Each structure stands twice: as structure tokens, then as C-alpha cells.
């Protein structure tokens, strides 16, 4: 199709989602043993064991302990962006926007 563009996306996955790496059996994301302070990028995976969703890249990220606080769980992100850094930047922006909208909504509801 002339003029068609690819839409960039980043979606969070549950840790019990199954993926298949090339030449391997399906495995759950939680079985990949991501630990605090780690980040990885798996560029070509198949998603879901039961009903194959398609191919994409998966980013695993667990923020290291910061100012005495530790995140409770890792992020697993499905994306078509070219790197872990690009996907994380996009997802963090989305998280910030959601927090801002939530705060604005609270302020608006209180004023009514």
C-alpha cells in the first residue's frame, strides 16, 4: 500500500506470558530469571503458546534498588522498536502521562 507507515508500539506483558525464542521451546517470561538491575532485549520471538500472536521483540527490565526502594516486579514489554532503550523510554513516557491524567481527573472531580 502506498504511503503506509509502521506504527511503533510498546505493550506490557504479564510475567506468565509464554514466548518462543528461535530454535527453543516455549517458556514463560518469569522463567528467564530477570533480577533487579537487569535489562535485556530479545529481538525475534513468537508470542503466546496457545494461540500464536505473532513475532516481535521483548524487553525485560527490572529497575535496580534506588533510594532504598525496590520495585516489586520486573517489566516485560512487547515492542517493535529497535532497542531496549527506545522501548523503555517510550513506556516510561506513557507511565508518566497516565499518572498526570489520573492526577488531573482527581482535581477535576474534587472541584465539581
Explained architecture:
The chain has 112 residues and is of the alpha+beta class. The protein has one domain (10-111). It has 1 helix and 6 strands; from the N terminus they run ββββββα. A 6-stranded antiparallel β-sheet has the order 1-6-5-4-2-3. A hairpin with a 6-residue loop joins strand 4 and strand 5.
Largest sheet report? 6 strands, antiparallel
Low-confidence regions:
none
Output the radius of gyration.
Answer: 17 Å
- How many domains? The number is 1
> What is the typical, i.e. mean, pLDDT?
83
Instruction: Write out the strand line-up for the largest beta sheet, numbering strands in chain order.
Output: 1-6-5-4-2-3
The geometry reads as globular
What structural category characterises the helix and strand content?
A: alpha+beta
Oligomer: single chain
- Kindly state the percentage of residues in helix: 25-40%
Output the helix-strand order. EEEEEEH
Beta strands, count: 6
Tally of contiguous helical segments: 1
Approximately how much beta-strand content do the residues carry? Answer: 25-35%
Whole-Å distance between the termini? 49 Å
Features:
112 residues; six-stranded antiparallel β-sheet
Amino acid at each position: 500500500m502506498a504511503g503506509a507507515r509502521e506504527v511503533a508500539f510498546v505493550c506490557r506483558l504479564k510475567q506468565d506470558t509464554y514466548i518462543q525464542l528461535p530454535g527453543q521451546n516455549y517458556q514463560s517470561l518469569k522463567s528467564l530469571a530477570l533480577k533487579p538491575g537487569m535489562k535485556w532485549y530479545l529481538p525475534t520471538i513468537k508470542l503466546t503458546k496457545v494461540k500464536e500472536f505473532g513475532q516481535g521483540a521483548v524487553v525485560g527490565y527490572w529497575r535496580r534498588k534506588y533510594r532504598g526502594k525496590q520495585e516489586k516486579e520486573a517489566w516485560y514489554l512487547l515492542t517493535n522498536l529497535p532497542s531496549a532503550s527506545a522501548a523503555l523510554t517510550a513506556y516510561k513516557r506513557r507511565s508518566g502521562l497516565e499518572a498526570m491524567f489520573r492526577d488531573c481527573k482527581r482535581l477535576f472531580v474534587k472541584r465539581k
